[in-house]
Please model this.
Amino acid sequence: MHGTVSGANPGSGSGTFSSLPLVLRLALRELRSGLRGFGIFLACIALGVAAIAGVSSVSRALTEGLAREGRTLLGGDLSFRLIHREATPAEIATLEDWGTVSLVATLRGMANADTGAALVEIKAVDAAYPVAGDLVTEPPMAPAEIFAEADGVFGAAVDPVLLGRLDLEIGDTIRIGTQDIALRTVLRSEPDKIQAGFDFGPRLLVSRAALDSTGLVQPGSLVRFTYRLDLAGPANDDALLARAQAAIEAEQPQAGWRVRSRLNADPGLERNIERFAQFLTLVGLTALIVGGVGVANAVRGFVDRKRESIATIKSLGAPGGRVVAIYLTQVMLIAGIGIAIGLAFGAALPFALAAALGAILPIPIAPTLAPVELLLAALYGLLTALAFSLAPLGRAHDIQVSGLFRDQIDPDRRWPRRRYMAGVALAIVALLALSVFAAFDRRVALIFIGAAAAAFVLLRVVATGLMALARRLPRPRAAAPRLALANVHRPGALTPSLVLSLGLGITLLVTLAVIDGNMRRQLTERLPDAAPSFFFVDIPSSEIDGFTDFLRAQAPESEIQRVPMLRGRLVSLGGVPVEEIAADPDAAWVLDGDRGITYEAEMPEGSEIVAGAWWGESPTENLVSFDDELAAGLGLSIGDAVVVNVLGRDIAATIANFRRVEWESLGINFVMVFSPNTFAGAPHAHIATLTLPDDAATEEAEVALLREAARTYPMVTSVRVKDALEAVNAVVEQLVLAIRGASSIAVAASVLVLAGALAAGHRARLYDAVVLKTLGATRGKLVGAYALEYGLLGLATAVVGFVAGALAGWVIVTRIMNLEFAMVWAGPIAAAAIAIVVTVGFGLLGTWRILSQKPAPYLRTL
Amino acid sequence: MSGKSIVLENVELSLGRGPARVHILKGVSLGVERGEAIGLVGPSGSGKSTLLMTMAGLERPDAGRVTIEGEELTAMDEDALARFRGRRIGIVFQSFHLVPTMTALENVALPLELAGAGDAFDRASAELRAVGLGERLSHYPAQLSGGEQQRVAIARALAPDPAILVADEPTGNLDETTGGSIVDLLFALKRERGATLVLVTHDTGLARACDRMIRLRSGRIEADADAAAA
Model:
């Protein structure tokens, strides 16, 4: 037995760990040999734990930020949002009983300039703005100065994007509706920005008086009036907050406003953060599981290296179980180091993010040590280490002491004893239970687990199959291919660990490439033929016919669709208030905020009745048609009552039918379509779409039409579908970037495992190379043989990984994202090709050094 | 010193699987008195190391009975055998087999710790002093010479006060002078403790130092005689 250990611990004192339990004591002594051989093990565990800890810590920092900055984001302690209408004097009086009230109105409109027209997100504020936080402009200006009227022209702060889009400068004037607006300063940050939700256009910040004089606020136009209440009384008094909210809601039950408090400023965003964090956690878990293969390989190598020590300890009276306990403790202590490194990185991530990007992040971030999240990440690491190291460690139980007396030719290939396999099963079950229990969406977690298990089994079967095939193939005459083939199936071959690590990496890369490709295709390339070119919103009822004629004159070949459009909030479904409904996560968004609704005598295009029947010509009761998938997610049945609040009135209707809606057609459609009698006499605007024939849908034609529509009908908001999709695409790009970032960790883990597996096979390669060189093999021949071996394994694994990844991508695209699937080839093929190159490259890199050496010095040590 | 320390009755043992299976011990019967020293000699492959391992409970015979200090090994399960070994049998290997991550003191204390002895380190320290390594307690195996390593191995084998001491070519990895001093030490300590000693060796001179010399050939006892007469 050889080996040098530094740091002597003389005597029978503390250096011998004599006061600790025996197993721990011996494990600590064994650790003195350092962490040699555990590099990949540590990196795999640290990487996976860092990914999970990092994601959950950042998510926690963001939700914490939302909670801490609730008042700033909300613009007060409580906010009450109405759509289409302003609050009544009685409603305002109720609010004012509790504190100071300020108002913000938001809507979309068209900015007209000599240089063109563009959609803008208008925000009109009163003199109190901003109640909390700071409005940052460049050059810095006081709100009163920005918004002041001079010679009939109001001022505005403007998002620099609009300046670029319309080729304008600060000091220029644009026209909104019928009002000229001077662009006085560049808007850098609004404290309550997050409340704006998804933006299709750049922000234009004006005064309430300016908005009123634009003429855009008409009955039925899509204006959101948000009243912010700054409570009178001590700051941060949560009891007062709850009391005020309850009292106001009780006093104005019919208001139909959406109420938010500073403690719950944006539940939708919070939910999305949690959902996204879960997805990224699963990607982190993939990294950990891929790394698990590296853990298993490292532990197998460790047990092999420790055979003599294990046999010696057994010869001195330690039963097999105790030996396993000693080495398991040692491995877990090392895993603990990896976990600690991972946790340190993960915990530091939100602090690093806040320091580097805090100022430009659109969401407030409050970095904090998240003990529960870190504990969870540590548990994931511990269970993975246990699940992957117990089986190879279990083999130590049966290492024969007789090996100390004679060379063991036959390495023990039996399965570890049942108790260790039971331990593995327990650790896996605990790992699965933890990932499902901690999941935001358990269905997604279960799909992930199923996919991971299937990938493992598949790759294991492929490895066994490859080895069996290589064994049965006729022996080639030439030495190089014969050696390559033998290396694929010989005892202790790299095949199983290489196929597993490389296969998991390729599967993951291909899955991501398929998802990525499908998302992009869905958003950009795959615009349905019948997709409209424009949406026109807020067309006043009095102008709808004139506007339609205008469109026909501008684009005579186009198809025009128009429907009435109102906005309303769901109050209750089937008699249950929406706050109490436990909705499926995919359908919960319907209950949140206001929804576009319409009424129709005829069933809208792109719909199909799947239950119930469409109403007759003149229904006598209020009826509603509901989207069937969402109805299922909300647990609705035909005949259930639906209550919506529109313009401050609760309106009840009975579900008459469920429709399957083809949302992808991008035609006008609504979750809820009411019978015409339901909204008879209610003031409302219209929404219209215009579909240009293919040959006319050019960039120039669309821009010209947009400009003309904005000039002739300044009240009507025009949304060019291509622009809107670009805006969506930009958001998706960012999400994809985050997913790629997290996934690259999983891919890095797979490369690590691959490198580890190749390094473990290094000694066998060295032996082969030296013996063959001695017998006259040239370096070229050897390189050829190894390249062939790695190439064969890489290719076979790439094919399997490609198929498995495409399959996983198909499941995610069609079952989780509910999108139409089309195979994309370029990305996945590139991923698989890179994987083969990496394998062959890594493999040859390791052997090239050996091949360059003279055999004699090695022969002496072999 | 009376009664049998080791009794082997018709022990049969084969190793390997399938076509590679080799019949190593063929009906070996043997009795060793308490305190006796026997030398096992024979050519390579004659089965002497396997016989030694069978006596130490490291190999389980396919047939026959092995009784050590009145306890039948063939009836014990794996864990019971390990504990029995820790308590009753001390092993000295040709390649020393010290645990490289442990100091000399820890190596010697190891069997005592495994047996749950509370004074493991005090006893280990005394054992090391007895083999002349009182100044080397905190040295790791790599910091010791071959002879010193074998002394540590002897101290470790003797620390639990075993009834039987088995040694496999204890001088095989040492030069002649060092080997000689190790043999002297081994026999002196054996005498002092009253332990039974089973020694496998190629060196007939060393075998003659024992009370009895048993010669094996092809898995059978070819000769069993008083060492002085052999």
Observations:
- Residues 1-69+267-440 of chain A form one domain.
- Chain A has a mean pLDDT of 84.
